[in-house]
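Give me the fold.
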Amino acid sequence: MTKTHTPALILLLATIAFGIAPFVTPPFTGYEPSMFPVRIERPSIQPAGYAFAIWSVIYLWLIAHAVFGVWKRATDPAWQAVRLPLTVAVLVGAVWLAIAGSSAVWGTVTIWVMAGAAIAAFLRADTNVDRWMLSGPTAIFAGWLSAAAAVSTGVLIAGYGWLSDTQSAAAMLALVLVIAVTVQMRRPQMPVYGLTVIWALAGIVAVNWTPNLTVAAMAGSGIVIMVLTLLATRRA
C-alpha cells in the first residue's frame, strides 16, 4: 500500500465508522420537543418515519463505494477528486448522531457542513466513470442531506418561534427546491439525486396529508417541480 492509496484507505475507514455510528449511538428519531422554547410535537417539515429507511441504502452504497475504491480505483484521478469532500461528509456523519442528540443548534450546523461536503463530492463525481459506483452513491447521499439539512433548520426555526410551524416548513421547502434544482441541473446524467429529494418530499406529503394540508400541498408541488427538472435535464 503506497502513499497514493492513503486517501482511498482513509475514506474506507471513515465510511466504516459512519456505518457503525448508528449501532453505538443512542437512537435518534428527531429533536426532542423539550429542546425548544416552543414545543411542537410533530414539526410539519419532518418527513414520515418510513422515509428514513433510505439510510440503509445510503450506508451500504457508500461502503460499497469505499471498498471498490480501495480495491480497484485507489489511484484513479476521477475517484481521487471525490475523496476529500466525501471523507469530510462521512467523518462529520460519524459523530452527527451524538451531536444532534444533545444540541439541536449544533446538530443543524453540522448537518449543513455534512450536506455541503456531500454535494461537493457529488458535483465532483464524473458520471462517465464507474457511474453507479462513483456518482450514484454520492448522489443519494447528497440528495438526502439536501433535504435533511433543511428539515433540521426548519425544526430549529419553528422551535425557537422565529416562524410558525407552517411558515418554517414553507421556507425550508423553498430552500430545498432552490438547492436541488440547481444541483440537479449541474449533473443531469445522474437522476438519483433528484429522485432522493422526491423521496424526502413524498415523506412530507404523507405525514401532513391530514394535519397540515397546506404543507402537504407545497411539498407535492415541490415533487412536481423536481420531476419537471429531471425531465428537462434528461432532454438537454
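The longest helix spans residues 131-159.
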